[in-house]
Design brief:
heterodimer, A: mainly alpha, globular, B: 312 residues, Rossmann fold, 5-stranded parallel beta sheet, 5-stranded mixed beta sheet
């Protein structure tokens, strides 16, 4: 894509206010918000399983209006600072996918799964704030939704390439747009005033070498993305496992035993979120047919 | 100039309404969908809200709740438009926190004059802190006085941030302001969830706050405030300082000194059972308690356990 077009897309991303999310999530949260016994933490837990709402929450708390520009990098802190009423308003104002596609649910699941792996690895490596890493993992593919919403025609072309020429989504993006969803996601995160600690892992999740301050966190997201795809949990637009970066692999320095243990912990945690995603899928089907 | 959000489909049905308001310099934002209106409150709240009753089904109530709970701007005046029949039917003001009513169909001259009145009234009663938007000293004294005579036993709590002055010198005042705002938000959101009904939160100034909550909730609330502060705090401190457990800055005498990380101290004075006659006595006990709690390391709160008031 020529420079003018890149600029145009960048400007469109800057204007992006409302990325849609799954009707099932919004329905569940609306129900929770109406129940006087629901706590902020309970709603936070559900929001931290949805990459779109999580990103919007971070956008709000880091906006100049709320007074903490580029500072808040974890969902739980965002919720403490915004409070129940704002979280509720966020849900009222949330838009949902007008036309639900299977892809939307699959990408949601992939994002959630990636966050789970990130958390296991970050805790294992003794990273100071594991929640920050899983937050970055949760929103790493946000650029895909932004492309879908802002460039619907190009998005169609990308999907055609993936289907017909069996390309990876990223290769198709690069061919059609001259940029990939990681870069687009980074732009979006930057335009939304998110902290650098989140922007880099999003924009460098396919090539951690490009990260400067956040080499380790970017490598964790990179590896978690690959692992969750390998496990076949959720689906991220194509059925290819991305190439592993040598730099990331060296930095993480895992032995085969490490990997075995990580897999075991991940499987266990995925089991916990599985019930939840079945519930959301059921709600979505009910909404679509009802 | 003031930005007014008009939520509804009939508010500006007469073109003169728009003309006369814009002639006075008001900026009008017309919203006909409830979702957009709520979104706007989150992104870029207006200074005043005019909402039509029954707009978007029960959406008008959602919008009013959002407006009255808006954190960035407190006291946004809310004007509601409704029919004479709806007025005569009676309205429950406890669940409808609006400031004024306008009868349907809206007369342009009335709309203008009501909006001007709402603006004037808001400016009159404003003693809020410009940073946190929380009520200031006049309101705090009134609230303490009310707590002393309340049939429900209350607790007056004084909060301050330990090591705030050196933090401010070390990190700069703009980040210091962020911390002041952060602590205000932590307090407001905890109380909002645990005891919104009977509580009060004020900002004395700088890093000093006062909140008043029912005595039976005070332990739960203090625990939660300290825990939430602990979760958020490190985002406001450089990772290196977090690792070292503090930072080096000059003390009041200009000597290089090691200070610990930021923490919070809360001095709690229960005021139930007619223990105190006036707010000055509460302040005297609070200052003793503050002295004790500040002497402890880290995040702490202390509750005054004495039966009566003893000024020593």
């Amino acid at each position: 894509m020529e420079d003018a077009k890149r600029q145009e897309f960048r400007a469109a991303l800057h204007q992006t206010k409302n990325l849609p999310t799954l009707p099932g999530i919004v329905a569940k949260l609306t129900k929770m918000a109406d129940d006087p016994d629901t706590t902020t933490e309970q709603m936070g837990k559900v929001i931290s399983q949805d990459y779109i709402l999580a990103a919007k929450l971070l956008k709000l708390v880091n906006s100049a209006f709320y007074g903490f520009p580029q500072r808040i990098s974890s969902i739980s802190s965002a919720i403490i600072l915004l409070g129940f009423n704002v979280v509720k308003s966020l849900i009222i104002s949330a838009s949902i996918f007008e036309v639900m596609e299977d892809q939307d649910v699959e990408l949601w699941q992939h994002s959630l799964g990636c966050a789970v792996v990130c958390n296991v690895i970050a805790s294992r490596l003794g990273v100071k704030d594991p929640e920050e890493v899983s937050t970055a993992g949760l929103i790493h593919d946000i650029g895909k939704v932004a492309i879908k919403m802002e460039l619907p025609n190009e998005y169609e072309m990308i999907n055609r390439l993936v289907r017909e020429r069996k390309m990876s989504m990223r290769a198709a993006e690069l061919e059609v747009l001259g940029l990939d969803h990681a870069e687009a996601g980074g732009w979006l995160a930057k335009g939304w005033n998110l902290p650098k600690k989140l922007i880099e892992p999003v924009s460098c999740h396919h090539d951690p070498r490009q990260a400067s301050a956040e080499q380790l966190n970017s490598s964790i997201i990179h590896f978690s993305d690959i692992m969750i795809r390998g496990l076949g949990y959720g689906h991220a637009s194509d059925n290819k496992v991305p190439m592993l970066s040598k730099r990331a692999w060296d930095l993480l320095n895992f032995s085969p035993t490490d990997i075995d243990e990580i897999l075991e912990q991940v499987e266990e945690k995925l089991w916990d979120v599985k019930g939840f995603s079945l519930e959301i899928k059921a709600e979505d089907t009910a909404q679509a047919t009802g | 100039m003031a930005r007014i959000l008009m939520a509804g489909t009939h508010i500006l049905e007469r073109p003169e309404s728009r003309i006369s308001l814009e002639a006075k310099g008001y900026q009008l934002i017309n919203c006909t969908s409830i979702k957009t209106a709520v979104g706007l409150f989150l992104e870029d709240p207006p200074d005043l809200l005019v909402v039509e009753k029954g707009f978007g089904g029960t959406g008008d109530m959602d919008l009013i709740r959002v407006a009255s709970g808006c954190l960035q701007k407190t006291n946004i005046p809310i004007l509601m438009i409704l029919s004479r029949e709806e007025m005569c039917g009676g309205l429950d003001w406890r669940t409808l926190p609006v400031d004024d009513l306008i009868e349907r169909p809206v007369a342009p001259e009335e709309l203008l004059i009501r909006i001007q009145l709402a603006e004037a009234r808001m400016n009159r009663v404003f003693d809020n802190n410009p940073l946190s938007k929380l009520p200031g000293n006049t309101s705090i004294l009134n609230a303490i006085q009310n707590a002393l005579t309340s049939p429900k036993p209350m607790a007056v709590c004084y909060v301050d941030i330990d090591n705030f002055k050196p933090y401010n010198d070390h990190y700069g005042f703009s980040q210091g302001d962020e911390v002041i705002l952060m602590v205000a938000r932590v307090i407001v959101n905890v109380i909002d969830q645990a005891a919104r009904q009977h509580s009060f939160i004020g900002h004395v100034g700088g890093d000093d706050y006062v909140f008043i909550v029912p005595e039976d909730k005070v332990v739960e609330i203090c625990d939660k405030i300290l825990a939430n502060f602990e979760t958020v705090r490190n985002l406001f401190i450089e990772p290196d300082d977090v690792r070292r457990g503090g930072f080096v800055e000059k003390d009041r005498q200009g000597r290089e000194t090691r200070f610990g990380l930021l923490s919070i101290s809360i001095a709690v004075v229960p005021t139930g059972h007619g223990k105190f006659q006036h707010s000055g006595q509460v302040a005297a006990v609070a200052s003793q308690m503050k002295h004790k709690v500040k002497a402890l390391d880290g995040n702490n709160y202390l509750i005054d356990q004495r039966e009566g008031y003893s000024p020593d």
